[in-house]
Amino acid sequence: MEENCLLKLRGIDKLFPGVHALNNVDFTLRKGEIHALMGENGAGKSTLIKILTGVYSMDAGSILVEGKDVHINSPQDAQNNGISTVYQEITLCPNLTVAENMFIGREDNLWVKQKSYEKRAEEILNSLQIPARARQQLGNCSLAVQQMVAIARAVDMQCKVLILDEPTSSLDDKEVNMLFGLMRDLKSRGVGIIFVTHFLEQVYEVSDRITVLRNGELVGEFLTEELPQVQLVAKMIGKELDELNNLSEGEEHKEHTGEVFYEAKGLSSSETLPFDFSIKKGEVNGFTGLLGSGRSESVRAIFGADKVGGGTVKIKGKTVKINKPVDAMKNGIGYLAEDRKRDGIIADLSVRENIILALQVMNGFFKPISRSESEAFADEYIKALNIKTASRETPVGSLSGGNQQKVILARWLLTHPDYLILDEPTRGIDVGTKLEIQKLVLKLAEEDVSVTFISSEIEEMLRTCSRLIVMRDRHIVGELKGNDLNQAQVMKTIAGGESS
Amino acid sequence: MMKDKLRKIAKGGLGQLAIPLIAIALLVIFNLIRDPGFFVIGLSHNNDGNLVLQGNLISIINGASELAVLAMGMTLVTAACGGQDISVGAAAAIAGSVFVKTLKSGAGISGGKVFVAFLLACIVAMIFGSFNGALVAIFKIQPMIATLILYTCGRSIAYWINGGATPTVSSPIITAMGSFIPGIPIPTPVLIVIFMTILFKLLFRFTSLELFTQSVGINGSAARLNGINTTFIKLLSFIILGVCVAVAGSIGVSRLGLINHETLLLDIEMDAILAVAIGGNSLGGGRFKISGSIIGAYVIQMLTITLYAMKVSSTDVKAYKAIVIVILVVIGSPVFKEKFGKFMNKIRKGKDGYLEKGAEKA
What we know:
The complex is a heterodimer of chains A (500) and B (362).
Chain A: E1 5-16, E2 19-30, E3 34-38, H1 45-52, E4 60-65, E5 68-70, H2 75-80, E6 83-86, H3 98-103, H4 114-127, H5 143-156, E7 161-165, H6 173-188, E8 192-196, H7 200-206, E9 209-214, E10 217-223, H8 229-237, H9 241-248, E11 260-269, E12 275-280, E13 284-288, H10 295-303, E14 308-315, E15 318-320, H11 325-330, E16 333-336, H12 340-344, H13 351-363, H14 371-384, H15 401-414, E17 419-423, H16 431-446, E18 450-454, H17 458-464, E19 467-472, E20 475-481, H18 487-495
Parallel strand pairs in A: 3-8, 3-9, 6-7, 7-8, 13-18, 13-19, 16-17, 17-18
Antiparallel strand pairs in A: 1-2, 1-4, 4-5, 9-10, 11-12, 11-14, 14-15, 19-20
Chain B: H1 2-10, H2 18-34, E1 42-45, E2 51-54, H3 56-63, H4 65-81, H5 88-104, H6 111-137, H7 143-161, H8 172-178, H9 188-206, H10 209-218, H11 220-225, H12 230-256, H13 268-278, H14 290-309, H15 314-332, H16 334-349, H17 351-361
Antiparallel strand pairs in B: 1-2
Helix pairs in contact in B: 2-14, 3-14, 4-9, 4-10, 4-12, 4-13, 4-14, 5-6, 5-7, 5-12, 6-7, 6-12, 8-12, 10-12, 13-14, 14-15
C-alpha cells in the first residue's frame, strides 16, 4: 500500500438494465495529484463519478478513503467523506452573491452573520487568487470565475478529493489557464483532483496520471509523461488509430468551385450585427472565433433561430424570406444546435420519435408519418450512424452524449437537407464518435450537400473545412482558405493585431 | 403485433396505465366482497318506457361522463403547457347557458335547433379557451394563474347570459341526450364519451398533434428550433379543451333539463386534474396518455359511488376520497417507484442484501 493513497476504489461493478456500465473497475488517487479519467462516452466515467458522489449505488466493490472503508449512499455522505464535485454545468445560484453561493446549504453556518461569512469568502478568494469579490452577484462573473467559485466552495468544505467533470468545456484559453493555475495550487496543498475532460492537450498540460476506461472496463493506469498522446487515443478507442492518423494528415485545402447555394447580404438578427455570407454546393465551411465572438449567433441567424433583423437571403439565386426555423427547413436548411440538451433532444421521447421530428414538421401537421414508416426510418438511421441504443423506443435522454448527438444528426439527415449547419456537433463526445461525425461531414459534401461546421477544436475544422470564417467581437475579421488554412494563421487571425 | 402487446402486458409492462387499472381492479374486488350483487346489471323499463341497462356499474360509467370528457382535454393542456386549466367548470356553465339560451329562443325545439345550440356553445367555449390559451401561450402566464381569471368570473358571465334565471328546457331530444335514446339501452352520455374518445384517437392518427404536443411539453426550446410553432400548439390545446367543455356542459344541462349557472359541474376542475394525475400523466407536461386520464375519471367516480353505497354521508365522502387519492398519487410518484424497484431487487437477491444492511448498521 502506498502511504499517500487518498482514495481507493476496488472492483466496482454497476449494472444498468441491458448495460454493464462498470465491470470490476479499480481506481486509485494519491495525495497532491491531478489524475485524469479518460474514456469514450459510454466508457463508464460518468457512472464511476456518480458512484463516488453517491448519486448511484454500486452493485459490488469497495471504496476506501485514506484506508478507511466507507459507504457512500448519498451526495451528503460523499461530502462528509471529503469528496466534492464540480460539474460541467454550474450548479450554483446566479442570482445570489459569490459569498452566499459559497456558504449556502451548509449545516455549520445556519446562523452565521452576513458580515462574517463575506469576510471568510473574501479570504478564501484571495488565498486562491480568484478574481471575484464576495459581494458580487455570481451571475455577473464569467463562466470561468463561476467555476472557480464552485471549486472554492468545495475547498472550503475541507475536501480531500475534488472531482472536476468537464470543467473546461465552456471556457476559453485564458480562462482555462486560470483554472489550471488554481488546480496546481490545490494540488500543492495536498488535494487529490480527478479531472474528466475530452481535451487531450489539457490532460497533458496539467495531469500527473491517467486512468483509461473503455466499455465499462479498466484499460490501465499510466503516468502522463510515459504515455504519448497517440497511444492514449489508441487506448481510449481501442482501434482506428491508423484512420485517425490518415484523417489528421489533412486534406489538401482546395478552394471550392461550384454553384452558390446560399447567399446572405446584410443579414442580422437580434443577436448579431449585419453580415454577408455565402456557401457553395458541396462546400464545407467553418465559423471560428473565441466564445462570444458571435459564431453561433451568426449561424442561428442563417437558420432564423433568433428574431430576424434585416438583410436579403438568396437560395439558388432566388430571394427567400427566412423569419423562423420552419422557413429555413422548407428551404432545405438543417441546424444542429450548439446546446444539445437545451435545444436538441426531446429527452423523454423515444429515439424513433426524435429521429422523425424534423421530417414530421416539414411534412406538416396533417400528414403524420405512419408508425411503420417511422420505425423503418429509425431502424435505418440507427444502423447507418451506428447509434448505440437498447431499442428504437428507448427514451433518448438515457443514451450517452455521443449517441444523443447521432440521433439529432439522424433527425436532420432524414430531411435530406441541401445545407446543414452543425454547431459544435463534437462537443462533449468521445473521440470515436467525433471521428465518425467528421467523416460524415466529408461524405455529405461529396454528395453535394453544403455544410457549415463549427467546432472549438481548430484541428477538427482544419481537417474538414475548405474555408474558415474568423470572427472577433461579433465582426467577421477574416476569411481563410487554401494555404492560409493552418493553425498558426487561424490563431493569428483570431487574436488579431499583426495580421492584415 | 397483437401478440407482442400481450406479451408486454404479461411482463407487467403496462407502463403508466398500471396504477389506474390496479386501482379500478381493487375497487371492483372490494365492492364484490362487500356486496356480491353490487355490479349486477339488469335490463328494465325506465319512466319513459324504454328498455334500458341499469345497475351500479352503469350509473358509475354514466356519471363519470362529463369528467371523462373534460379529463381528455385537460390531458392535452397539461401535456403542452405543463399546467392546468382550473376554469373548466365555470366555462362549462357559460357553454351550458349559451346552449339553453339558444334552445329557448323561438318556439319549439327541433333536432336542428339542438345542433345549432350545441355548435354555438362550442364556439363560445372555444373563444374562452383561446382567451386562456393566449394568456398562456403568448403572454407566458402560468396556466393556473391565467385560468384563475375565467374561474373567478365565468359563473357571473353565465348568470348574465340568461338574465339571472335558471330556465328549464323540456324536450324529448334533450331528455334523450341526458339519459337514453329510445331503443338504445346504453346511456347517451356514455355514447358521447365513446364518440369523443374515437375523435381524439382519430385526431392523433391523422395529425401530428400527439408528437408535437409532447415535444413542446418536454422541451419547448428544442421543439421551436425544429420548426414547431409552440405558441400554436399551446393555443390549440386550450381550444380543444374548449370543445370538451362545451360537450361536458351540454351533457350536464341535458341531464337536469335546466341550467343552473351556480351549480353546473361545480368543482369539477379539480377532479379533472386529478383524473389526469391518476392516469399516470405528469402534471409538469410532456408524455401523456389520454386513456390513462379516462380511466382516472372512472376511478374517481367509482370511488365516490362506492363511498355513497357504504352509506358515507356526502360531507364525509370528500375526506375519504382524499385518503384514497393520496395513496394513489404517492404510489404513482417516481420516488415511490424507484424505492419500490430497489426493494423488489433486494427481495430477489435474497437475504444477502439484508445481511449487508445489517452489517452496515453495526
